[in-house]
Structure formats: structure tokens, C-alpha cells
Design goal:
By secondary structure, this protein is an all-alpha fold. 54% of the residues lie in helices and 0% in strands. Helix 3 crosses helix 5. It is globular, with a radius of gyration of 15 Å.
Length: 145
């Protein structure tokens, strides 16, 4: 997997990272500007990755894992029927809004850390084996298969 700068901006925006005063709408090009660098550093720090402010392999892998887990969990909780990929596109955004509405959260489509924790909690309820260990819903399914 190799994200373009535009694609990683969509991912960072979808996960609630700040891309500048106008968010993704004001920062939707293929430049590595100061806002994108700051968002990348924040993401890297949050997940104990090397803090480079650049789109490196470790960052791409972690971002892809998070988005795939998020999409899988949305499929479990709101039957979103999303293709599980590393991209946070319009279908994921719409499914996230549905999840947020269903669970009484502000329907922004942004999967910040609080929303992701709630999503994981609800997804784990749909996989009984996940309650037996501290795994993501996707990891739990791999244990069953």
C-alpha cells in the first residue's frame, strides 16, 4: 500500500486530525504543508511511531490498519457493507455518520479517538469471542477462522 499525500490527508481528516483552519476543504492538494506535517507528527506520537512528520512506511501501515479495523467494525455495528480497505472515502464517511447517529453521537463523520473507542466497544459485543481477550474485532475474527 502506498498512500498519496491527498489520500493520507483524507485518512487524517477522517480520524479527526487537524489539517488547518479549513480542514480538508482548505488542504486538499498533494503538498506536504505545515498542517499535514503536524497532523502526521501527532498521529505518529499517538501510536508510538517514529515522529518524522512525513508519510513513511510505518505511518502508512498503521493508518491502513486503523482504517481497515474501523471499516470492519462499521460493517459489524451498522451493517455498512463497506469494502475493507485502507482508504477513508465517502462510503466510510457516510457509514461513520450512520454509526454516530445510531449511538447518539454528533454525526460529523469524523472518527476521532472517542468515537473509535465507542465503535470498538460496540463491535466487540457482536463477536462474543472478542470479550475473552483484548483484541480488535478484526483480530478476534482471525482467531475464529
Amino acid at each position: 500500500m502506498a498512500y498519496s499525500l491527498t489520500q493520507i490527508k483524507e485518512v487524517l481528516d477522517g480520524l479527526g486530525y487537524n489539517l488547518g483552519p479549513n480542514g480538508i476543504n482548505g488542504n486538499y492538494d498533494a503538498t506536504l504543508d505545515i498542517y499535514t506535517q503536524a497532523a502526521l507528527r501527532e498521529f505518529q506520537a499517538q501510536y508510538s511511531l517514529p515522529i518524522t512528520g512525513r508519510l513513511d512506511t510505518a505511518t502508512e501501515i498503521k493508518a491502513g490498519q486503523i482504517i481497515k479495523n474501523l471499516q470492519y467494525s462499521l460493517n459489524l455495528t451498522v451493517n455498512a457493507k463497506l469494502p475493507v480497505s485502507e482508504f477513508y472515502g465517502p462510503l466510510t464517511l457516510r457509514a461513520m455518520k450512520t454509526f454516530q447517529q445510531t449511538y447518539g453521537l454528533p454525526a460529523t463523520g469524523i472518527a476521532n479517538l472517542t468515537v473509535r473507542k465507542k465503535l470498538d466497544e460496540e463491535a466487540k459485543k457482536r463477536l462474543p469471542i472478542a470479550a475473552d481477550f483484548n483484541a480488535s474485532p478484526e483480530e478476534a475474527l482471525q482467531q475464529v477462522v
